[in-house]
Design goal:
Blueprint lengths: L10 E3 L2 E3 L2 H20 L5 H13 L6 H16 L21 H10 L6 H31 L8 H30 L15
Antiparallel strand pairs: 1-2
């Protein structure tokens, strides 16, 4: 397990100092796996060493520098026994060792700006202007159609209602006039005037 007896609560396993307990536990597990493999492997036969080396890499058995160091030791034994670099699988390290801050990325992006494509920008501006002109024309046409329309809408409702009222008023006056003329012909005198509210006859 992790040797964290120091006052600083350091996590030391196999000569490596880890920053947190989880990494130290992984290293401790790798130490246990190495001890188990050492008891089962025949170190005198390079073919056995190569089989263990390749299986450990393929199955990603080791997760810490302790395990990677063990793989490196196996690799060195295989190289000493006559294997070439090309015969052996490289040891994958599934971690990054370089930290990049967001500010460094922003600075790099600001330094490396892609060249502006002037043709595409000009086309976009021209297309936008043409589209705006077409839309403005369509809006104007819609207002003209709405104002000339006989149906009531928000633009011409007052005019249409006034025109209808005027037409009804004229029609009513004409009918009243016709009724008065018919009454005169028949000699009927109306007891009251019909046009008291409307106006003179």
């Amino acid at each position: 397990m992790a040797d964290n007896n120091n006052a600083d609560s350091k996590f030391i396993v196999g000569g490596y100092e880890f920053l947190n307990e989880d990494d130290a536990k992984k290293a401790s597990m790798d130490e246990s796996k190495i001890k188990l493999l050492e008891t089962k492997i025949n170190a005198s036969r390079p073919s056995d060493i190569k089989a263990v080396y390749e299986k450990a890499i393929e199955n990603k058995i080791f997760k810490s520098p302790i395990g990677w160091q063990y793989l490196m030791d196996l690799r060195n034994k295989l190289l000493e026994s006559g294997y070439s670099q090309e015969d052996l699988i490289p040891i994958p390290l599934n971690v990054t060792f370089t930290r990049h801050s967001a500010f460094e990325n922003i600075a790099a992006q600001q330094r490396v700006k892609p060249p502006k494509n002037e043709g595409a920008a000009d086309f976009g501006k021209i297309f936008s202007i043409i589209l705006n002109i077409v839309l403005a024309i369509l809006v104007i046409v819609m207002f003209v159609i709405a104002s000339k329309s006989d149906s009531d809408n928000i633009i011409n409702y007052k005019r249409n209602i006034t025109n209808r009222y005027s037409a009804w008023d004229e029609e009513l006056k004409e009918r009243e006039k016709a009724v008065r003329e018919a009454e005169k012909k028949l000699g009927i005198e109306a007891p009251q005037r019909y046009d008291g509210d409307i106006g003179d006859n």
